[in-house]
Specification:
By secondary structure, the chain is α+β, with helices and mostly antiparallel strands. The chain has a six-stranded antiparallel beta sheet with strand order 1-6-2-3-4-5, with helices on both faces. Strand 4 and strand 5 form a beta hairpin. It is globular, with a radius of gyration of 16 Å. The protein starts with 12 loop residues before the first helix and ends with a strand. InterPro entries: Papain-like_cys_pep_sf, Peptidase_C12_UCH, Peptidase_C12_UCH_sf, UCH_AS. Its EC number is 3.4.19.12. Keywords: Hydrolase, Protease, Thiol protease, Ubl conjugation pathway. GO terms for molecular function: cysteine-type deubiquitinase activity.
Length: 230
């Protein structure tokens, strides 16, 4: 049961970078907008790319496909690396924070976190399962307070009953030769097949295109990437 509803974190690189830096991510790594999913647009994104995040509207199409995909995986099975860090999202509108935690947690071999709330959370979460990690995040006041502070700073209005927030953030990362989709509202990580660190952006973009194709009447899709700062 969700214990708290937060104001959502904006898909605004400036806000997201402040959030990451507040939690101990060095400014060497930052979030940038991905302006389009065609190869020319992708070529403008600084490399290396550590993760790709997609913000999209939660629609009937998403919910139906989510259920169908889950049923297929449960019947056929899938290979998941034991090195993937995955957690559940328990707090309403915390998907931006969960997406950023997924991005950093799966790249701690490259990102040298300084001592702080995120490093403490990841150290404590290391040996927990996905559900327990989600519960631990609820209790991680430092991370939740950083979310609250920066959500206030963005232009997002407080969600009201008439206008509930219905956007969701998910993360794509490379781990052990595979492309993983990490969505805290799904039952488990989704293995989308082979990729490499160099091809992560292109392969994640191909999956993002499928999300968009499933909702042809919808235009509210945003893609950002965690990359090395220029």
């Amino acid at each position: 049961m969700a214990t708290e509803t937060l104001i959502p974190l904006e898909s605004n690189p400036e806000v997201m970078n402040k959030f990451l830096q507040k939690l101990g991510v060095p400014s060497k790594w930052n979030i940038v907008d991905v302006m389009g999913l065609e190869s020319e647009m992708l070529s403008w994104v600084p490399r290396p790319v550590l993760s790709v995040m997609l913000l999209f509207p939660v629609s009937e199409a998403y919910e139906e496909y989510k259920q169908k995909e889950e049923n297929e995986i449960l019947s056929k099975g899938q290979e998941i690396s034991s090195n993937i860090f995955y957690m559940k999202q328990n707090i309403s509108n915390a998907c931006g924070t969960v997406a950023l935690v997924h991005s950093v947690a799966n790249n701690t071999d490259k990102i040298q976190l300084t001592e702080g709330h995120l490093k403490k959370f990841l150290d404590e979460a290391k040996d927990l399962d996905a559900a327990a990690r989600g519960t631990l995040l609820e209790k991680s006041e430092g991370i939740i307070n950083a979310h609250k502070e920066l959500a206030q700073e963005g232009q997002t209005n407080t969600p009201s009953a008439e206008d509930p927030v219905n956007h969701h953030f998910i993360t794509f990362v490379h781990k052990d030769g595979a492309l993983y989709e990490l969505d805290g509202r799904k039952a488990f990580p989704i293995n989308h097949g082979p990729t490499t660190p160099d091809n992560l952006l292109e392969d994640a973009a191909a999956v993002c295109k499928k999300f968009i194709a499933r909702d042809p009447n919808e235009v509210r899709f945003t893609v950002v990437a965690l990359t090395e700062a220029n």
